[in-house]
Each structure stands twice: as structure tokens, then as C-alpha cells.
Amino acid sequence: MRIAIIGPGALGCLLACRLSCASGKQSDVLLIDHRPERAKLLDEQGIVCESDGEKHRISLPVSSTPEHATPPDILFFCVKSHDLEESLTFVAPLLSPAGLIIFMQNGITHLDLEHADWLQGIPVFATSSEGATLLEPGHIRHGGSGHTHFGFLTPRSKPENERLQVLTALLQKGKIAASVSNDIRSRLWAKLFVNVGINALTAIYSRTNGRLLTSLDTLSKLKTLVKEAEQVARASGITIKEDPVAATITVCERTAVNTSSMLQDIRNCRPTEIDSINGAISRLGKELNIATPANDAVIAQIKTIEAGYNAP
Fold it and tell me: Which is catalytic among the residues 191, 241, 286, 303?
């Protein structure tokens, strides 16, 4: 089974390393990078993965020319939500009607791709709680194991379901817990609740996840953000299997020393995923006539911070 992974970030490199080791054939897994100079570097030096105090260097093919590659059976998109459209255009030569396209983005805005007639391939949506940090290009630290869920939003054929099961088995062989979910939409929303409550606040207050719980002010704001999202979800007919506020607080406790992806983006003056996370709640709230003042406020604050990147 041929696999291509778009995006040499923390998660993309982690998946590439684990899948390459599990398959036993380096040529089965291809990492795609849109930057030619970085792709050349990673292709030559390999990917370094730190885990449990040990370092392993994995050699696998890295390319910046998707037009020269064979369309894979499975194509992972491990890029930020705001880079997804451009990435789809970049790797268009790798898309094929029978290929599985796995979207690993935060938020829910990318779910619209389920009904995109122009998309060449079968969309699969995924959420992962694997903890990985990019230390430098091609060098990651696996900070903690989680679980990766895959699923179709609409019923698919038996062969397509079987191929997804083969992928999860390969990931498990590579020591990444993975399974196929019959209700991936609910799992995506469950992660969205957590991101809604944590990401923007950590970026605004420049705090690690755990420090959001040490202040009554930020804890109160966290609860309000998540409760607004829960109200929007229920009005949208989303199945909620556990208390979103309690689950978000638990994640803060378990990842107390983590620096959220949005805070990392702010510190590095990069665009954030605010539009796909809190922005999704705000837009749906407007459509459903549900007020989301707390989410609207943090969106405005993050936008102000982003606007100041190039300020004197």
C-alpha cells in the first residue's frame, strides 16, 4: 500500500516515521514538502524522532515534486486549515478517484470537503491526540501517546472500509493507537470543544495549558467559551458523549506543560487557526441565531495580535 503524507510538521513527520518502520519498505511512504530546499535536506538527512529519551533517524523519500510521484492509495494532509486549499492544489497530480484522502486538520471547516464535487478522491476525516513537537526541520519529539480516530462522514463501500482498517492496523504496528470510528463527526466536535477552550486563551495570555486553570479569570473564560460551543453543537444536532467543559479541563491537567499550537503560532508570528476553531463556532452561532460573545471576543483579540506582527 503506497502512502503519501503532505506536510513535514510534527504530526506529518511522526506518521511518516512510524508508517515507514511498520511497512518495512521505505519506498511505501513518501513525505511531500512544498519547499524544495527543505525537502532536499530531509531527503538527505532523514527524520530524527525522539521518544522516551532515545533518538532514532529514519530514512525515507521526501519530495517537493508531486507531479513526479505515483498517485498513492492513501494521502494524508497534515497541514494547517488555512493551508489546506493551497496544499490540495499543489498535490493535485497525486489525487485519484479511488484514493483515500485523510484530513487531519483542527476545527470543522474542512468537513465541507465531503461534498466537494471537484475533489478527486474519497475523503476520510481524522482526529489525533498524539503529542509531537517539531524541534527543527526534520527533528521531532514524541511527547506522549494518544489515539487517532478515522472515519467517513457518509457510508462507503466495503473495499474502502477495508482499506481504512488496513491503515489502522499498520499504524498500530508502528505503535500508534488507531481505530475507525462510526461517528467521526462527534469525535471531531469533541476535539473542537477542547481547542475552543484552550488554544485562543493560551495565545492571548501566553500561558501553557495547565496555567489556564491557575486563574479564576481564565478558567471562567474557558468554561464560557466551551459552553457557547456546546450550545451551538446541540442546536446543530451533534451527539455529545461527555461533558465538554470537564473534558477540556481534564486535557489542561494532562497537558499542563504543553504549549498549544496557537501559542506557538503567535510566538513565531505565523497565521493561526482561529477561523477554523472559535471562528467556526461564531459563524454557526450566527446561522442558528445563537449568541457567542465570548468566542467573538477572543477571535477579535487574536486577529489584533496577528495584525501587529509587522507593526513597528
Answer: 191
Domains and CATH numbers, the chain: 3-182 (3.40.50.720), 185-307 (1.10.1040.10)
pLDDT (tens digit per residue) in 157-181:
999 999 999 999 999 999 999 999 9
What gap in Å lies between CA 276 and CA 110, rounded to an integer?
8
Residue 113 to residues 7, 34, 124, 234: CA-CA distances in angstroms? 19, 22, 10, 22
Tell me what the pLDDT averaged over the chain comes to. 94
Rounded distance, CA 206 to CA 266, Å?
A: 9
**Regions in the chain scoring below 70 on pLDDT:** 26-27, 311-312
Tell me the C-alpha to C-alpha distance, in Å, between residue 265 and each of 108, 211, 272, 274: 19, 18, 6, 11
Residue 191 annotated among the catalytic residues of the structure: yes
pLDDT digits (tens, 9 = 90+) for 196-222: 999 999 999 999 999 999 999 999 999
Calpha distance 275→226 (Å, rounded): 16
For position 311, what pLDDT does the model report?
Answer: 66
Which letter, b or e, does each residue of 272-298 get, where b requires 16 or more Cβ atoms within 10 Å of its Cβ?
A: bbbbbbbbbbbebbeeeebebebbbbb
- Evaluate whether 199 touches 301 at the Cβ level (below 8 Å): no
- The whole-angstrom separation of Cα 202 and Cα 221 is 11
d(CA 38, CA 19): 21
